[in-house]
Amino acid sequence: MEGMSYQRFPKVKIRELKDDYAKFELRDTDASVANALRRVMIAEVPTVAIDLVEIEVNSSVLNDEFIAHRLGLIPLTSENAMSMRFSRDCDACDGDGQCEYCSVEFHLNAKCRTDQTLDVTSKDLISADHRVTPVDFGDPAAYDGDQQRGIIIVKLRRGQELRLRAIARKGIGKDHAKWSPAATVTFMYEPEIHINDEMMENLTLEEKKAWVESSPTKVFDIDPNTGQVVVVDREAYTYDDEVLKKAEAMGKPGLVEIYAKEDSFIFTVESTGAIKASQLVLNAIEVLKQKLDAVRLSEDTVEADDQFGELGAHMRGG
Amino acid sequence: MGPMQVDEQDVDDKQKRAASVKSAVDKFQLVPEFLKVRGLVKQHLDSFNYFINTGIKKIVRANDRLVSTVDPSIYVWFKDVRIGQPSEIVSGVSEKITPQMCRLSDTTYYAPILVDIEYTTLGSRSEKTIMQKKNATIGKMPIMLRSCCCVLYGKDEAELGRLGECPLDPGGYFIIKGTEKVLLIQEQLSKNRIIIDTDKKGNINASVTSSTELVKSKTVIQMEKGKVYLILNQFVKKIPIMVVLKAMGMESDQEVVQMVGRDPRFSALLLPSIEECASLDIYTREKASEFLEGKVKRSTFGSPSNQEGRALAILRDVFLANVPVSNNNFRPKCLYVGVMLRRMMEAMLNKDAMDDKDYVGNKRLELSGQLVSLLFEDLFKTLITEAQKAIDITLGRPSRASRFDPTSSVLNKDIITHGLRRTLSTGNFDVKRFKMHRKGMTQVLARLSFIGSLGHMTRISPQFEKSRKVSGPRALQPSQWGMLCPCDTPEGEACGLVKNLALMTHVTTDEEEGPLISLCYCLGVEDLEVLSAEELHTPYSFLVIFNGLILGKHRRPQHFSNVMRKLRRAGKIGEFVSIFVHEKQRCVYIASDGGRVCRPLVIADKGISRIKEHHMKELLDGVRTFDDFLRDGLIEYLDVNEENNALIALYEGEGTPDTTHIEIEPFTILGVCAGLIPYPHHNQSPRNTYQLCRMDTLLYLLVYPQRPLLTTRTIELVGYDKLGAGQNATVAVMSYSGYDIEDAIVMNKSSLDRGFGRCIVLKKYSAIRQKYENGALDRILRPDRTGPGAERVQILDDDGIASPGEIIRPNDIYVNKETPLETGGPINSSADPKDCKYRSAKQTYKGPEGETCVVDRVALCADELSNLSIKLIIRHTRRPEVGDKFSSRHGQKGVCGTIIQQEDFPFSERGICPDLIMNPHGFPSRMTVGKMIELLGGKAGVSCGRFHYGSAFGEPSGHADRVETISETLVKHGFSYSGKDFLYSGITGSPLQAYIFMGPIYYQKLKHMVLDKMHARGSGPRVMLTRQPTEGRARNGGLRVGEMERDCLIAYGASMLIFERLMISSDPFEVQVCRVCGLLGYYNHKLKAGICSTCKNGNNISTMKLPYACKLLIQELQSMNIVPRLKLAEA
């Protein structure tokens, strides 16, 4: 075994990719790496979210903090968040977070003048920067364009008014969940299923059926032609052990063997819409890389991390 | 083969059960219909309405004439009385008021009591004219919200909204001086009934608490050492009962024996009493009267002429006052005593015949209407006597003004208004006329949560003192079934004494007696008058007792009661009249009095329900109402006593041929609060009770309230789904981080960021612009925004009051008020207000440091004395922090132990990440299986999109989902049937070793929050007297090293620490001590030396430190002529 090396080259295979959804395989690596990627996606990929609200008029039923909190949770498109500055280390505005490099201003101006209830939604937020706008969930295919008007902030009755100025800043999910770009990030170990064909053959059709049914998810099926039990969807298996228990209960332990592959993971990433799911993964890798760079840098010199601005902040801020 | 068979049987069984459930008529719909008719606090409203419509008229009619004793032709006659519209007289004009106005302006929500009167006036030349007056006001009556005189009565949702009232608010309380007051339901032993029990010495007592319009008395007949005595307050000693009977005209001993019954055992028991009477040499009525005369308590005052014949008068009016005596015919009373004696004898021979005081059938509930009516009666009588006195004085005066109008002393008096308001606001009922002295009858309505206030209104306050260490009244009575909630009682001293009404309970109001009595006679009751003593207890005949009064006897009691019941079902007599055949006592009890608890039941004929499918369909279609069911004889109300004559099946299918009634729904045995717990019947019972105690400590205002995923029918009926007080949290039952021991919970930071458990706390601050004796007035100034302290006035408007929406910080001024220096003295209106000198009385806000509180609302209104009162509501939005308290609905509370980042939380491969983690050790010892089922049901609910139900005992009737079906749903949606999930660690990414039980559970935030409790102090305020640090958080007090802590330190030998804690950090003080006389001297600053004032020199002065409290003690002792001397030695 001369050329045998333990060095591994992780591979990614994309299964499915939509704007807000991605499913991919990550192979030839450890749970630690997979988990690091997941954690970074949730907590450390920066986005932009409303952080400061100045309310001018609020005669709605919800109070100021309530509305401010709701505004904060609206996802904003943050494609350029990676290149934005954190307001705390922005040189242009001395960290008060009101300049164009580190913040985006929004205005909201709504007044209900009719007897009908007025829904104030994220669409009513007017952005000063066209790149940072409330995420548009409008899926013209699924809804009538008018009906789905973004995220409702508050409902106004006749005569009620809401006027405010909001400032969005860059941040990470660690500080507040509103900056997290991920709706769901999860992975699972890829299962490996071996059916003991010999034993399976000995089962009657009823027994096979009962056994197949015992899994809460549809992992196995019976081929209608051959009457053989086949694995339909390996990944539907949720490690629930139901089939194993069933096999044991039927007096056939070892009917099937299921292992989790320790080195391959199936990731599911859903984005809030702030950034595309694919971008989320890439940004996460980028952030991870920066963190590793920072570690290497800090070995050389402690002072060096001042040079790396954002990176240094990452290091210091954790 | 074996297991297969079992399976088949199982399936068969299930199908059969399913079929039987289907065939049974679903009577659930009756419950909402009942609540629509009766409402949740209908007991209060009904009784108050009864008082307003009937009771008040009766009281006034009974005392309708006010005649002057000086000149009987001068009179005031109250012809009619009614309650007007809630209104207030503002500068002479009557203005309508709404409850919300009263709450805001701290006034009372009341309506004028209007009377029509006829009276005579004296003209200037003493000529008399009879005058009429309509709608004259004699006082003001606080109005119960939503009662028939309330402005909210019969209003729909939109109208209520316009009046500023919540449509879901049940009403049933009063508003007194701006606070909402509930008159608690009072539990009492029933009046006018014979109760047999034993006293402390084991003597058998028969007692009757009589209560008529005129007299209230208590009569006790006691068996002591084999002899029977009468105990009555008006007699100094115990009176042998035979003497009493003889005095009432029953001279023959034989008749007495016959009256008690011919049974030789009875006669034997009676013999000692008869012998005693003979030994006293009393054989005739006259002798007996004479004997009694000697035993009457002589009142110290009162004319002696009155005293003659008093014994007879007492026997007539006080002794068994509920039995009427007409034309000095004492026979009914004698027979009543006979029945009492017989019951005593029976009890003696057979202990089972003893009455149980805790039996709900022997209890009456006094509702707010009755209590207010009592108060009103007292005040009205006082008003009349006072007025009469005033009239007599005026008429008696020789030189009175020529014209005289008697109404001036009756009308527009404050006796009634003030009396009612004072009593309701303090809750101290002090009605001397009825010997009633009770405290704490009213309480401020608990408004912490919707359910809390609902529960408050169904609460029953006990008759006994809470301190009594007895178990009997605290125990759960079987007769409480369906009437009083078995779960809902507080923990601690009032446990079991304070009760709550069940969901379908109705409390009766008084009903007209006359027609019922004559009906009884018509149905063949043989009148007592015509019966001989012998005939009283003939076999096969039952006594008929109506509201505690013996009417007579009936030879066919079963037939009689059947006819009466038929009449009731036909609606010919009131639906709440109860007919109860007591086989053992051989009596038929008929009751129509108020305060009995009763509940509706479905009538069954030979075990077959009268309600059929089509009836329910008609109900659903809206063509049939609850009252129609009642009228058609499908449903009837049974009180606790009559329930003893019924055989009630829980479900329709369980009926046997003997079944007479069927329950409407089993979950109605629980009250409003207990109904909110899902699957309470799977929990260990104290857990449910703990949960209920917690109900009223919920919280202030939740930011994102949710409807529980696992609801119950009661939740829907009560409207809790519209006014939720918690959130559905995804709970993982696992151990995590070690910060979850002892019921602590671990929370997900991202969930908190997204609004979980966020709540708004509102606090009221108020300021009054006082008007003073001398006409001076507080003033509120425009703030000076430039001078020193300008930063403290930032939030003030130009009017000197904080403006809404401003962030308020500690030490900010919210009302820039000044008060005049001179407030007493005569009114000097002429003086220019500018001349007055003022001192600053700025109102500053003291709140938690570093929190952003906001002025929510500012209200200006006039208070009762028409001073300007300013109310500020300050709002604080709080997110949960470590130490805040949360609770599920199963009596499982826990504090937040730590808050952890989402990425560190475990996750499933579906991406589900829990909101909070609960330690599994919370389960085994508490046995809250209901919580586990709630989790399963909630999980199934979110996955299939249907709210699941968990009503109490609801599985057979389909009001609670079964675990099997829930599991099926879970499996269908790809979850494990057991509710367990396969989770990965968020920290390492590797799978957790066990499957984790995870799913949504409804969690509520409790009002105990760290922010309100945390407290620390370095140096701070001290008490003036002792110079020691103050006590308590509110005064920024110090933390006390108490006796036990001190003992620990002594034992440890940490003397310097004790010294520091007890002296240095507390109240060190330097004193000058004279070494010669040992007394305290003083320090003379001019001479810069200590001087002993006793020795008059400064030669032997030492300076030392001691606690100020010690110095104080020495001086206080000196003031009492005790000389403590200090002997100093060199250390």
Automatic annotation (TrEMBL), chain A:
Domain (DNA-directed RNA polymerase RpoA/D/Rpb3-type) ranges: 21-298
NCBIfam families: PRK00783.1
Keyword annotations of the record: Acetylation, DNA-directed RNA polymerase, Nucleus, Transcription
Organism: Acer saccharum (Sugar maple)
GO biological process, one term: transcription by RNA polymerase II
UniProt GO cellular component terms: RNA polymerase II, core complex; RNA polymerase IV complex; RNA polymerase V complex
InterPro entries: DNA-dir_RNA_pol_30-40kDasu_CS, DNA-dir_RNA_pol_insert, DNA-dir_RNA_pol_RpoA/D/Rpb3, RBP11-like, RNAP_Rpo3/Rpb3/RPAC1, RNApol_insert_sf, Rpo3/RPB3_RNA_Pol_subunit
Cited SUPFAM superfamilies: Insert subdomain of RNA polymerase alpha subunit, RBP11-like subunits of RNA polymerase
Protein name: DNA-directed RNA polymerase RpoA/D/Rpb3-type domain-containing protein
Main subcellular location of this protein, as a coarse class: nucleus
Domain of life: Eukaryota
Family: Belongs to the archaeal Rpo3/eukaryotic RPB3 RNA polymerase subunit family.
Location relative to the cell: Nucleus
GO terms, molecular function: DNA binding; DNA-directed RNA polymerase activity; protein dimerization activity
Keyword tRNA processing: no
Automatic annotation (TrEMBL), chain B:
Organism ancestry: Eukaryota, Viridiplantae, Streptophyta, Embryophyta, Tracheophyta
A Pfam family it matches: RNA_pol_Rpb2_3
Species in which this protein is naturally found: Acer saccharum (Sugar maple)
Keywords: DNA-directed RNA polymerase, Metal-binding, Nucleotidyltransferase, Nucleus, Transcription, Transferase, Zinc
Family assignment from sequence similarity: Belongs to the RNA polymerase beta chain family.
GO biological process, one term: DNA-templated transcription
Domain RNA polymerase Rpb2: residue ranges: 191-366, 443-507, 544-604, 626-654, 1037-1127
Stated name of the protein: DNA-directed RNA polymerase subunit beta
Keyword Metal-binding: yes
Residue span(s) of domain DNA-directed RNA polymerase subunit 2 hybrid-binding: 673-1035
Protein purpose: Essential for the completion of the three rounds of mitosis in female megaspores required for the development of mature gametophytes. DNA-dependent RNA polymerase catalyzes the transcription of DNA into RNA using the four ribonucleoside triphosphates as substrates.
